[in-house]
Specification:
Blueprint lengths: L9 H7 L3 H5 L7 H5 L10 E5 L5 H8 L4 E6 L2 H9 L6 E5 L12 E7 L8 H11 E12 L1 H4 L7 E2 L5 E3 L9 E7 L1 E8 L2 H11 L2 E6 L5 H6 L12 E7 L3
Parallel strand pairs: 1-2, 1-4, 2-3, 4-5
Antiparallel strand pairs: 5-11, 6-7, 8-9, 10-11
The structure holds S-adenosylmethionine.
Amino acid sequence: MSPQNIYDDPAFFAAYSQLPRSTQGLSAVYEWPAFQRLLPPSLTHRRVLDLGCGLGYFAREARARGAGEVVGVDISERMLADARARGGDPGITYVRSSLESYEPGEETFDLVVSMLALHYIADYSTIARRIFLCLVPGGRFAFSVEHPIYTAVGTSAWHRGPDGAPAHWPVDRYRDEGERRTKWFVDGVVKYHRTIESYVNTLLDAGFGLIRIEEPEAEADWVAARPAMADERRRPPFLLLAADRPA
Ligand SMILES: C[S@@+](CC[C@H](N)C(=O)[O-])C[C@H]1O[C@@H](n2cnc3c(N)ncnc32)[C@H](O)[C@@H]1O
């Protein structure tokens, strides 16, 4: 089955482009404070691969932190065109490819990151093994995905009480891994649900050593600025993992 490229859907892209994540970058990214805790202490001269790089915010940030070279891979031509329009940097190479077909080579990167892209991938274990091989010994894989508590049902919606306020978040079919079709800006957005067990054990089975797990809640200043964010701590929206290829 060929991967979906929903970010090139004009209606989807127009809506996604208006998100704070798209207009303001990492400072407006909910999981960014926690994501930084997954990163190695220094990126200086590091070779970095960003899988599902989108608009290139992390690629530019990595370069600003001294990375020698960043390769950003994404299936969406619109996302990559926007990333390229945000400034040429000879140290960043954007590659249009699905993650499923991208071959990163062996021992070519010090750090592989992926922010909110791997829940679009049906075959996570093949990608995890490929990432392991493309890292140098001692290299780091750090990624975020939509949390399995969030993806289990697939409707991505609170159950609301009579007053319209969120009553609870439905969790069901937790162990039924696989495709979920949701509405997010447009109908028919395909995501893949996996258990936490699968996210972690697939890394261990590929040979990685687990470094860190984060289920971030919104920082206090975020909640102050955006009160609706308080509901995010009632169920985790994102799961973040860091794992190392043993040295
Ligand atoms: C939620 S966006 C995240 C973008 C960026 N990493 C960020 O954190 O802002 C997900 C990105 O993954 C890309 N993507 C989704 N499925 C993909 C696939 N099968 N292969 C490559 N890229 C994919 C989308 O095109 C999109 O740019």
